[in-house]
Specification:
This protein has 644 residues and is α+β, with helices and mostly antiparallel strands. It binds one RNA strand of 76 nucleotides through strand 14, strand 15, helix 8, helix 11 and helix 18.
RNA sequence: GCCGGUUUAGCUCAGCUGGUAGAGCAACUGAUUUGUAAUCAGUAGGUCGCGGGUUCGAAUCCUGCAACCGGCACCA
């Protein structure tokens, strides 16, 4: 006999081989009816699975959050069945659950288009209505291979072949349709319900490898209840309203045009925002002991050969040939330039660490399909720095960088940060010993960060070609993750360039170089901020902070005075004296995301007050001109200046 | 780079099976002097992404290219 323990702590004896369903039935038929799966010792399993050892069991109803994965997984199968019913000859491949939904990849000579989706979805609803039972069978590898080969399912056959021999395969059957699958699944296809929607089609390489054939992928989402689906679709609309490309246009920050794919035309206001970020970072860095420099935009090919960029990344570099046949490259990174500055003039061990910073504009010829607004561009500004130090200083310096990064993210309201270590990639330069040392150093740092309570992780094989790195990912206001900051330990480039310092023993020593960026790309960070704040920039970052709006012409003189006083305090002010209703002005400036409106009419002019309306609120308050401006000026002070 | 889609006025979009373009908002002009998210009336505005082709005739059909959008791959 085996002991099965229930969530309430009660325990009962059963014969080995009893199924979850049997147990549920033994408790009550209604429980058996509403249960869609079970969790055995916390692991989600099919209800029909048998139990042959002591275990904790939980019955999972359709409404249980854990059932959502099953609903989505079954919905992927449902999609596949519908597609094969409607489009015979289409081959199935894989259909996993992903964040917010699922997809299924098909192979078909003619890829699916968005126009196909309504018909497929309709068919899916028909199949749901049939409510066929989902049953599980265990097949041998050979049996499965024979079956899918005979059916012409070449991709499934390949999948089966990649499964280690000896393992039995699970087949899930729903009505006339079946698929090879790991499971678990719901008891019947009708349990998927109707709160699902096909979202989009896309091409995707078989097994994620661009050397493989391209499959036709259909994305969908599913929820337990219609209201959850509606809420999700609403969230998508919200995200769309935050899109920095849209807000950039609406707020008159920047634009793109055809002649400069992946490059930004910054308008006055956008550039003011950009410059606020640069000034802020410049102050923070200076306080942390960095020395700001500037290095050439265009450098001889030979330098990139020395660094290794030429060999590794030439096809992604912008190249230019001059009349005398010399080949130059627009810099894709700042590090070689900074090494040149380090090398210029003899350095002693007493000088270390040397921290060289630059707001360096780099050009990278990104694949056309990768471009995405300001998030992925071909020319961007890095808040780049290189710390030249000795091996013993790595830990301390990396921790200082860490502290600075966290301070900076906090100033923008990013408190949820994850740090991941990326280790040696296939394409790399340098010896195994150097890599081992560098990775060991960062591992130690990572452990220290974990000990301090930071969320940490590892991305194997994701390092830079010259060294491993720590990558900082932050989470924005609507829960999306953005990888921004990076700390990279490099035992390679300084040596390749022959950089050295004189050690305490009077011998030449090769320094270690730590590459680090905090915003990463200023352009991208600006885009992230726009979306994070949904355009409602905090006062200290807003390019236009105040608009003084008059109610009638009678207040014009006073409005000029208000604006002049505000400017004296360094606030960015516009005047709206137009002959329009105040409702019109409020609407217009609210849509333009102006953080503060100072409304003045006859009353305010007489009393020397202002009526204050802040973006995002319908409320108005009144204050004397001096008090109102003092409060706004205080709020407009950058956080690092406030600290000082 | 690969797959699919899109490209018409400053913005959002309409324009069916080919008969040389239309709306709303914005802009401009005039009237209105207004109390916290759209005052009224009028006017003007378009190489229909770019190139080639079919046709008596192309925004519409075919074709090449580009940019953008959604994914995939890539991201030093």
């Amino acid at each position: 006999m085996i002991a099965v323990t229930f969530p309430d702590g009660a325990s009962r004896q059963f014969e080995p081989g009893v199924s979850g369903l049997d147990i549920a039935k033994s408790i009550s038929p209604s429980l058996a009816k509403r249960t869609v799966a079970m969790a055995l010792d916390g692991e989600l399993r099919d209800l029909v699975d048998t139990i042959d050892r002591d275990a904790k069991i939980e019955f999972v109803s359709r409404e249980d959050p854990r059932a959502l994965e099953l609903i989505r997984h079954d919905c992927a199968h449902l999609l596949a069945e519908a597609v094969q019913e409607l489009y015979p000859g289409t081959q199935v491949t894989i259909g996993p659950v992903i964040e917010n939904g699922f997809y299924y990849d098909f192979y078909r000579s003619e890829p699916f288009t968005p126009d196909d989706l309504p018909a497929i979805e309709k068919k899916m609803r028909e199949i749901v209505a049939r409510d066929a039972a989902i049953t599980k069978e265990v097949w041998s590898r050979d049996q499965a291979k024979t079956y899918f080969t005979a059916k012409g399912e070449a991709f499934k056959r390949e999948l089966i072949e990649s499964i280690p021999g000896g393992e039995d395969l699970k087949i899930y059957r729903q009505g006339h349709w079946l698929d090879l699958c790991r499971g678990p699944h719901l008891p019947s296809i009708g349990k998927v319900g109707t709160a699902f929607k096909l979202m989009k089609v896309a091409g995707a390489y078989w097994r994620g490898d661009h050397n493989n054939p391209m499959l036709s992928r259909i994305y969908g989402t599913a929820f337990a209840k219609q209201e959850d689906l509606d809420a999700y679709l609403h969230r998508l609309e919200e995200a769309e309203r935050r899109d920095h490309r849209r807000l950039g246009r609406e707020m008159d920050l920047f634009h793109f045009q055809e002649e400069g794919p992946g490059t930004i035309f910054w308008h006055e206001k956008g550039w003011a925002l950009f410059q606020s970020l640069v000034s802020y970072m410049r102050r923070r860095q200076k306080a942390a002991g960095y020395r700001e420099v500037n290095t050439p935009q265009v450098l001889d090919r030979a330098l990139w050969e020395t660094s290794g960029h030429w060999q590794t990344y030439r096809e992604n570099m912008f190249l230019t040939k001059t009349e005398d046949e010399r080949i130059f490259a627009l810099k894709p990174m700042n590090c070689p330039g900074h090494v040149q500055i380090f090398k210029n003039g003899l350095k002693s061990y007493r000088d270390l660490p040397v921290k060289i910073a630059e707001f360096g504009i780099v050009h990278r010829y990104e694949p056309s399909g990768a471009l995405h607004g300001m998030m992925r561009v071909r020319a961007f500004t890095q808040d780049d720095a290189h710390i030249f130090c000795n091996e013993d200083q790595i830990m301390e310096e990396a921790l200082k960088v860490n502290d600075l990064i966290l301070t900076i993210y906090k100033d923008f309201g990013f408190d949820d940060v994850v740090v991941k270590l990326s280790t040696r990639p296939e394409k790399h330069v340098g010896s195994d010993e150097a890599w081992a040392k560098a990775e060991a150093a960062l591992h130690k740092v990572l452990e220290e960060l974990a000990a301090r309570g930071l969320k940490t992780g590892v991305n194997p094989g994701e390092g830079a070609f010259y060294g491993p790195k720590l990558e900082y990912t932050l989470r924005d206001a609507i829960g999306r993750e953005w990888q921004c900051g990076t700390t990279q330990v490099d035992f390679n480039l300084p040596g390749r360039f022959g950089a050295f310092y004189i050690g305490a023993d009077s011998e030449k020593k090769t320094p270690v170089m730590i590459h680090r960026a905090m915003f990463g790309s200023l352009e991208r960070f600006t885009g992230i901020l726009i979306e994070h704040y949904a355009g409602h920039l905090p006062l200290w970052l807003s390019p236009l902070q105040i608009v003084v709006c008059t109610i009638t012409q009678d207040a014009d003189d006073y409005a000029y005075e208000v604006a002049a006083e505000a400017r004296k305090l360094g606030l960015a002010v516009d005047l709206d004296l137009r002959n329009e209703k105040i409702t019109y002005k409020v609407r217009e400036h609210s849509l333009a995301k102006v953080p503060a409106l100072l409304v003045v009419g006859k009353k305010e002019a007489a009393e020397r007050t202002v009526s204050i309306r802040r973006l995002g609120s319908q409320a108005q308050s009144s204050a004397t001109l001096a008090d109102a401006l003092a409060a706004l000026a205080a709020e407009a002070t950058p956080p690092d200046v406030k600290e000082a």
